[in-house]
Amino acid sequence: MKFANTAAQQRVHDEEVQGLSRRNIWNKIFKGVCFTATAFSILMLLVLLIRILTQGIGFLDWGLIVNFASRNAEDAGLLAALAGTIWLMMVAAPVSFILGVGTAVYLEEYAPSNKFTNLLQTNISNLAGVPSVVFGLLGLTIFNRLMGMGASVVAGGLTLSLLVLPIIVVASREAISAVPTDVKHASYAMGATKWQTIFRIVIPTALPGVLTGTILALSRAIGETAPILVLGALTYVAATPSGLLSSFTAMPVQIYNWTGRPQQEFQDIAAAGIIILLLMLLFMNSIAVFIRSKFQKRF
């Protein structure tokens, strides 16, 4: 009897050892797949950066910033495109921030929990994944044609606002929902009303996450080409915008135009333009990281 029990215990032990060995093998396989995916992504990023830097670094000069577009590659610059991008952001940033944060506050703090609200939240989340050209067609229909704005700065800025609005709403909702409920209850216990709690407790606490999401969304808007091309942005502009109804071009459009030229010189200055665009995106992302690390509160 004692021999039978010992054999059974040994069989159970052997099965456990075999199961542990199989789990370790699968663990190593999964780790290898994850490492391969990471290495491939980093490799592709390095190839892109090395290609852009080696091609365009020699064409970075002050003339690329202060000159307008030209048919001659040696005289071509990004001044009109750079000014147009700044004007677009001056329209898109405040509009998307106010509408996005307001929508997020309503959905998190005021909206009733019912099927309509759930449907609304699902649709907003899905809109974040809609191709940017669809927003360009929407801007062309509403702002350009129905509202008669034409291919102006304000139409382009509002179109980019529609593009980044779902991203800002989703990021703001996550930041607001991360505010501890106990902090809100403590505010109510002190006699504060709902709007006082929202403006003095919820929004200041969620502000780092809200600003981070907004800046990252605007970084995407700066690099978008399809929406403003569909809207009718010009590819050759010899002046900077003077108002909201001025015609405009933007950096992605100008770079896209240069890459379509057959001359090698335009390909090189397009690479230099991409470097400037990447520096702008890196600067904005650095601000987002600084805001998150500097003002994030921990409870």
Q: How would you summarize this macromolecular structure in one to three sentences?
A:
The protein has helices at 2-56, 62-66, 79-110, 115-127, 132-146, 153-177, 181-189, 194-223, 226-231, 251-259, 264-295.
Explain what this protein looks like in three dimensions:
With 299 residues, the protein is mostly helical. The chain is built from 11 helices and no strands. α1 packs across α11 (264-295), α3 (79-110) packs across α10 (251-259) and α6 (153-177) packs across α8. It is extended, with a radius of gyration of 27 Å. The N and C termini lie far apart (61 Å). The relative contact order is 0.14.
List keywords for this structure.
299 residues; mainly alpha; extended
Helix percentage: over 70%
**Low-confidence sequence ranges:** none
* End-to-end CA span: 61 Å
**Strand-pairing-aware structural class:** mainly alpha
- Quaternary state of the chains: single chain
Categorize the overall geometry: extended
- Our count of helices gives 11
Q: Mean of residue pLDDT?
A: 86
Strand content: under 5%
Largest sheet: none
N-to-C SSE series?
Answer: HHHHHHHHHHH
